[in-house]
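Mods, move this if it's the wrong board.
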Amino acid sequence: MGLRSGEYFGRKINLAPAARMSWRTALPLWLPFYREPMEAETKRLLLKMSSATIDRRLREYRDGADQIGGISATRSSWVKSKIPIRLLDHKILEPGFLESDTVAHCGNSLSGEFINTLTVTDLFSGWTENRALLTKTSEQMVSQVNNIERRLPFVMKGFASDNGSEFLNQDLHYYLTKREVPVEFVRRRPYKKNDNAHVEQKNFTHVRSLFGYERYEDPELVLKMNEIYQAYWNPLWNYFTPCLKLKSKTRIGGRIKKEYDIPKTPAQRLLDHPSLPSPQQSYIKEQLRGRNPFWLKQQLDKKLKEFFELVEKKKATSKVAS
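Not the wrong board. Structure tokens:
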């Protein structure tokens, strides 16, 4: 049941969810869609398995993602003086407050043009959206933020970013703040990655685990990546992947005790929130009824194979041309 799509052209693509994910909570969500023959006793035992047993059984399937690091493509911006430094984390009791970051698919070099992925995650529910864009110009960034906002099942109320110029520019500032109901636009402290921790962890689980650390620079790949993100990858995470949410941290001597809530999918957290308007609740429920996680996973594997075939084809064509 692990979200792992195997090998494509020698790459081990590890699509396992984050360590905080509760497989035990996910099983009841996935099993009703499983169409292969299964004895009732087998199903009963699966639902009875502890989280530790599930984790042990899946261990052999988790080898995959290359353990190399990425390169930071963040650049500072002069407009940051207009955007206040603020930490929203402890005030978030409702959906709509987003953290954002970008991932550079640049390989080992920041020279030239290459594809970037914009990652946006909701602090309350964990709802995450990804979009690929060829360059991080302010126009492209505003376009993709607008695309994400139109697909969110809740109203965007706050937007937090790091200090990169792709976020701290006049175009995005105008888009977020110069509207009938302004969006609270804040930035995190420079050189403090933990300030943006919610979205930073998604950069690996939602981006690197899927597309790795290679360099992608062909515009055609942007369309393929966005199809994978929007049609298959994000729905799998948002509707069918439960995860834990940190409730509190208490320091006891030299140790920190962390308390988590019950694992839920982002969609479940939204539906459980009492202030979510009825139209938005109906939209989420309709999307849930119309989706099958096994079909999404099968199509994801198919599209990933096509993507990496195209990557290899582009590489071969480039070598011949040079």
